[in-house]
Automatic annotation (TrEMBL):
Span of domain FAD-dependent urate hydroxylase HpyO/Asp monooxygenase CreE-like FAD/NAD(P)-binding: 5-178
Protein name as it appears in the record: FAD-NAD(P)-binding protein
Organism: Saccharothrix variisporea
Entries under InterPro entries matching the protein: HpyO/CreE_NAD-binding, L-asp_N-monooxygenase_NS-form
Entries under Pfam families matching the protein: NAD_binding_9
Coiled coil: none
Length: 607
């Protein structure tokens, strides 16, 4: 029986398992022996495991979450549609009562808890296992893989922590998900300062895994980061410590428990991620990619520079999606027909005076025009005389954002969001080619800030925490120094204001690269020259995700998927009907695995 070992058993592995089952009838006749190696629960994995606070939620609506391929997915294997989270019939599934109660109350536009998503992912995982060829078996090993040996010509040995004998496999698929890193020199120095002066320091971490018990109640604590990690942090340090939210006269208020710290939070932008939209498109359905098409760029020779060749096309693609919804969904706010505008738009470069003139002529309202520079850095150049004045300003900014993202009159923002999703998929193709240069992380940060923000009610809660004094906003270009036995912090937004704090929390995920990985398996593979470090990522074949060694040669029996690879599709699940890159990669990997197993006639001896 052919043996496949998956290192990592989260939702990405479930997706590949489902594709193995879908493609096996055409490509492979026999059963499979599958081994799943992961210290976290199979199906849900680390991020979506049930064993985390019930207060933590998704930042996606139930109708925008699926694990199933649909007609939009361009792949060689058969499409096997299935229910989104909103469509899932969970009535016959064995679930905890609190999860059943939440599912019973859930609407398609609800933002469910992570425990609900965990249940959906575990159910899908079971369906994927059931789809494997008749006679297959699946074995779960709740531990870590620490080493893999074996050439392309020999079966692989997968060594597990705490086990003397390795697993022996025909094929190994690395699906490691999001990974930890060793402390950077900067964070090691901050930790040492905290230890020396009896301060609190929390380095970059997955918020659900961070030890927040060290954060002192009633003390001033600086927080760097205003993204989703901060939203989770604020939830756990406020409501998670016994505080409550109450609505009075339509306004949300926070009643402190007295066990909260005072969080002074800032970031490079100085503002939270934009709220998720709470409406649907009002106009024409979105089109596929028109201006930013990866295959067009790959047809040209040489390197592809992100700022020079890619970003102008992404900007034009996203703006096209935005204006398509504005013109077709809100024609009273424009002066041209969509056909007139779109025809001229297609002829112009995004960063051109002619394009700006077209926008001014066709879109009279400034609030209806798309300005990427202001969108990216909305409070640059603003300076306030007092910290209290800045609090009032930023609360007004957040209120306006929640109102805009909840008002269908501004559904053009959703048009831009959908175009961003399309652009993300095209960019993944470019990144996998190995020819993309100059992308320093700005794009992913901008995408997350604009398109992957929290539900609107989370920002309402943030406003309530601010009014209650639990959260204080520092501003843009926040700086932090470890001096004078404390942590000092300030920003460009309030130049004369300096906070002296007893703690510092880095509210962001670890930035994983191979040079700083804490994963023992990747460290072992890198030390042995069995993987190629390409800008900090594990290099894989852009077609089938086979692992490339240090010389660039693909390993016939090793595959890798996930954000730590050059084929770094980020999310294991997707919004329906978006031709998700991860789904396409899952299919390609599954087919390559099955084709290899079907044609494997090499020596069955062990390396």
């Amino acid at each position: 029986m052919s043996v496949v070992v998956f290192v990592g058993a989260g939702p990405r592995t479930s997706g590949v398992l489902e594709r193995l089952g879908a493609n096996a009838p055409a490509l492979f006749g026999g059963p499979l022996e599958v081994h799943l190696v992961d210290p976290f629960p199979a199906g849900s994995g680390r991020v979506w495991r049930h064993e985390q606070s019930a207060l933590l939620r998704m930042n996606s609506m139930a109708e925008d979450v699926t694990m199933f391929t649909d007609s939009s997915v361009v792949c060689e294997g058969p499409v096997r549609p299935g229910p989104s989270l909103a469509e899932w019939d969970w009535s016959t599934v064995d679930l905890p009562e609190e999860v059943r109660a939440e599912l019973a109350a859930m609407e398609p536009t609800s933002f469910p808890s992570r425990r609900v998503q965990s249940a959906y992912l575990k159910w899908f995982h079971a369906k994927a296992v059931e789809s494997l060829p008749r006679g297959s078996s699946v074995h779960v090993h709740p531990t870590r893989a620490v080493r893999v040996t074996g050439s392309s010509q020999l079966r692989q040995r997968v060594w597990l922590a705490g086990r003397s004998e390795p697993l022996v496999a025909d094929v190994v698929v690395f699906a490691l998900g999001h990974l930890d890193t060793v402390l950077s020199p900067e964070h090691a120095a901050l930790r040492d300062h905290a230890v020396q002066h009896d301060l609190c320091f929390v380095p970059p971490a997955y918020t659900a895994d961070a030890d927040l018990s060290v954060v002192p109640a009633g003390e001033d604590v600086v927080v760097r980061g205003l993204g989703l990690a901060f939203i989770d942090l604020a939830v756990l340090l406020a409501e998670g410590r016994g505080g409550t939210f109450v609505r009075v006269g339509g306004v949300l208020h926070y009643l402190p428990s007295g066990r909260e710290p005072r969080l002074h939070v800032g970031s490079r932008r100085g503002v939270p991620y934009h709220s998720k939209t709470g409406y649907r498109l009002q106009g024409a359905a979105p089109e596929g990619p028109r201006f930013f098409v990866a295959s067009d760029l790959l047809a040209r020779p040489g390197e592809i520079d992100f700022r020079l060749h890619v970003w102008p096309l992404i900007a034009k693609e996203v703006a096209y999606g935005y204006y398509r919804e504005l013109f077709t969904g809100h024609p009273s706010r424009v002066r041209l027909t969509w056909e007139e505008f779109a025809g001229r738009y297609a002829e112009l470069e995004w960063y051109s005076a002619e394009m700006r003139a077209l926008e001014e002529r066709a879109v009279p309202g400034m609030a209806d025009r798309l300005d990427f520079e202001h969108l990216d850095r909305p409070i640059d150049g603003l300076a306030f005389d007092s910290a209290d004045g800045f609090q009032e300003f930023l609360r007004s900014y957040i209120r306006a954002d929640v109102e805009r993202r909840s008002d269908p009159r501004f559904s053009a923002d959703l048009g831009a969001f959908l175009a961003l999703l399309t652009a993300y998929g095209q960019l993944a193709v470019l990144a996998a080619s190995g020819r993309l240069t100059g992308e320093d992380g700005w794009w992913h940060g901008f995408f997350s800030y604009f398109a992957s923000g929290p539900p609107p009610d989370r920002l309402e809660e943030l406003l309530a925490l601010s009014r209650a004094g639990v959260v204080r906003f520092l501003g843009a270009d926040t700086w932090v120094r470890a001096e004078d036995g404390v942590f000092l912090a300030g920003s460009a937004s309030v130049p004369g204001h300096v906070v002296r704090a007893k703690g510092l929390i880095e509210a962001r995920l670890p930035t994983h690269t191979l040079s700083v990985t804490a994963d023992p398996l990747l460290r072992s593979l890198a030390a042995g020259g069995d993987i190629q470090d390409r800008a900090g990522l594990v290099a894989v074949d852009p077609v089938d995700s086979r692992v490339l060694d240090a010389s660039g040669a693909p390993h016939a029996r090793r595959f890798a998927v996930g954000p730590y690879t050059t084929n770094k599709a980020q999310a294991a699940f997707a919004r329906p009907n978006t031709n998700n890159p991860a789904f396409r990669q899952n299919d390609a990997v599954a087919r390559a695995v099955l084709e290899f197993l079907a044609g494997d006639a090499v020596d069955e001896s062990v390396a």
